[in-house]
């Protein structure tokens, strides 16, 4: 980048004044452009197309624990017997929890 040596040099006071003026200008720009918006209220009014599920009814068929399944006493999920890793104090533990 070329330097113009004929331009008057700025002293430290001039540099500080310029930076203060620039800071004031930036502060004024930021204060006029920023708006305090509550994200929750903004999301409250947002409607997605086809997202009205108020009249929908979910139906899930729940099966009782089968003979070849067990409930892990660490994560309380029902697993197949092939996932049985060990028993602690007589309670079954799955492979994920035992690892």
Automatic annotation (TrEMBL):
Check the record and name the InterPro entries matching this protein.
DUF4193
Superkingdom of this protein's organism: Bacteria
Q: Write down a Pfam family by its short name.
A: DUF4193
Q: Where is this region: Disordered?
A: 23-51
Name of the protein this chain belongs to: DUF4193 domain-containing protein
């Amino acid at each position: 980048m070329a330097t113009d040596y004929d331009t008057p040099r700025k002293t430290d006071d001039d540099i500080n004044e310029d930076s203060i003026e620039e800071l004031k200008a930036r502060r004024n720009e930021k204060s006029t452009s920023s708006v305090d918006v509550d994200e929750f209220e903004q999301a409250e009014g947002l409607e997605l197309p086809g997202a009205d599920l108020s009249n929908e009814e979910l139906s899930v068929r729940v099966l009782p624990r089968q003979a070849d399944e067990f409930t892990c006493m660490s994560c309380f999920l029902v697993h197949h017997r092939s996932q049985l890793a060990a028993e602690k104090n007589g309670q079954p533990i799955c492979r994920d929890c035992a690892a």
